[in-house]
Amino acid sequence: MDTTLQAVKFGYGDAGFRLRIPKLTLAAGSRTAFVGPSGSGKTTLLRLLAGIATPQSGTIQIGQHSLHSLPEGGRRAFRIQHIGFVFQDFRLIDYLDVRENLRLPYRLNEALTLEQDVEERLETLAETLLLTDKLSAAIDTLSHGERQRVAIGRALLPQPGLILADEPTGNLDPTNKTRILNLLFEQVEASGATLVMVTHDHALLDRFEQVVDFETFHARETADA
Amino acid sequence: MPSLFLAWRYLRARPGQSAVMVLGLALALYLPLVTHRLVDEFDRIIGARAASTPLVVGPKGSRFDLALHGLYFRARNNGTVPYSEYTRLVDRHDGTMIPLHSKFTAKGYPVVGTTVDYFHFRNIGMQSGGKTMRQFGDCELGANVAAELGLGPGDTILTDRENLFDLAGDYPLQLNITAVLAPTGTADDTAIFVELKTAWIIEGIGHGHDRDLDHNGTSPKLVKTHLEITPENVESFHFHGDSTTFPLTALLARTKDAKGQALLLADYQDHATVQVLKTPQVMAELMSMILRVRDFLDAHHVLVAIAMAALVALIIALTRRLRAREMETLTLLGCRQGLQWSLQAAELTIVLGIAFFGARALTALTIYGVSSYFRTLTG
Question: Do B2 and A76 touch (CB under 8 A)?
C-alpha cells in the first residue's frame, strides 16, 4: 500500500508555523525516517498521515484512498484499520493491564472485532515481544523497555498497513533502544507494513531506506518562496 | 460499550479517589432521602397508634402533651382528672373506656396503672410462663423492658423515687413481676403495667402498715409503712378518702360508632377542667409542624445539592485537564468523537449509581435502627 503526499500545505492559524511538502512517496513495506530539528513539523506530518490533522491544500493518498476526501467517520475507520501508532512516551493507559492495553484498539472501535483469531494473535505477539508473563501486569509495574514493547504490540495487533512511530526509542537506554528497534523492524517486516519513524538519532538512519530531512523541506520552501 | 468498560476500569484502578467521590455523593443523597423516609415512617407509625386510639380524655392544658401521654405515656405532669370521670363515661357512653394513671417510673420506664381492659383494647398477649396480676403490687412488663433489664416472672422491680430530698414524700414500692407481655412494636413494649390501685399506692393514696399501730397521725409510735406488698401484708393495704376523687392522668375511649363519638365530644365541649381529643387530628397537627421543618430542611438540601454539583463539575473540569493526554491517546487510537464525554458520563453514572444505592442502604439501615424508637417514643 503506497502512500503519496502531493503539494500538501498545512499551517496553525496565525501562529506562523507552516509546513509544505511538494511531493513525498512512501513505498509499501518501506522504512522511512523523518529527521529535523524540534518544531520543524515531523509530528505534524505524522498527524496529517493519520488523518487527525487536515491539510489546507494538497492530497494524501494511502493505497486507493484519498485520506482527506473521506468524511470524518470514514477517516477514523480508515485510521483504525490501516494505521498503527507508536509514541516516544508510550501512551499506555495506566488503569488497564498489559492485555487490555493490547486490546484497546478493539475496545475503542466498532470497526474492529475482538474475535478468537485476534486473541490468538495477541498471545503470539506477546510471546514475540517477551510479554507473555506480563499480560496481567499493571502498567506502572513495567520497565520502560517493557512499556515500549507493549506500545509496539498495541500498534501491530490490528495488522495495520502503515505504522507511524514518533521517536519510539527516545526514552530508552542504548541496550533497550537496540532491542526495541530490532523488534519493531522484525515485526514490521513480518507484517509487510510501511514504517514511518520520527527520530533525532542519526546513527539509526542507515537502517532506513528513505530519510526525509525536514530542514530540506523548509529550505526548499524558502527557496521556492 | 467501551465507555462503560473504560470508566469501570478507571474507577477500579483508583479505589481511594473513587471511594471519596462515592462517599461525598452518597452523603449528599442520604440526607434528603433519610429526612423524607424518617418523616414518612414517623407519620405512618404515629398515625397507626393514633388511629387505634380515637379519643383521649384528660385534664385541660396542652393538647399535644395529653395526646402523647395517652398514646405513649410521655409528659407525666399534665394534671389529673378524678376517677369519677371514668365512671361517668362508662355510665353515659357505649364503647370501651380505659382509665390510665402514669405518673411514676421504675428503672426509668413508665409505670402505667390501668385495668385488664387495656390489654384487650390494645390486643396485647402475654408471653408463656406469665400470670395475670392478681393482687396489689403485681406488675406485667413490656417486652422491651423485660429484655433490657433481664427480668421475668418471679422477679421484682423497685419504682423510682420522685424526689430524693423529700423525706415525707412517696417511697418506692417493690413490684412483683407476674408476666412479660408479648412484643407489639409499640410504646407498650417499654412500659410497666400495674393495677390502677397499685398506681394509687405508689402515689401514696393507699398504703399498708402493721395493724397494732394507730393511724391518721395520732399515734405516738412511728407508723411503719410497707414498701413491699406480700401475701402476708396485702390485707393491711387500704385507701383513705373518696375513691371517686382518686386521680387518673388520662382516659382512652373508643366509642361504638361515629354517633357515639360525636355525643362524647359534645359531652365535654364546654367542660371547665376536662378536654377530649381526637388523637388522629392532634397527631396530624403535630405532623404538620414536623413537615414544616422538613420543608425547611429540603431548602437546605437543595443548597447542599447545588454545592455538591458545583464540586463535581469542578472535579470533572480538573480531571479533563489532568487526563487530556489520555484522551488524546484514545483519539489517536481511533475512538469516536464524543467518547471522552461519554467516558466521563459513564464514570459519573457509575459513581452516582453506587452512591445512590449506598445512600438507599444507609437510609434503610437508619429507618430500621430508629423505627423502634418511633414506635415507643421513649428514651
Answer: no
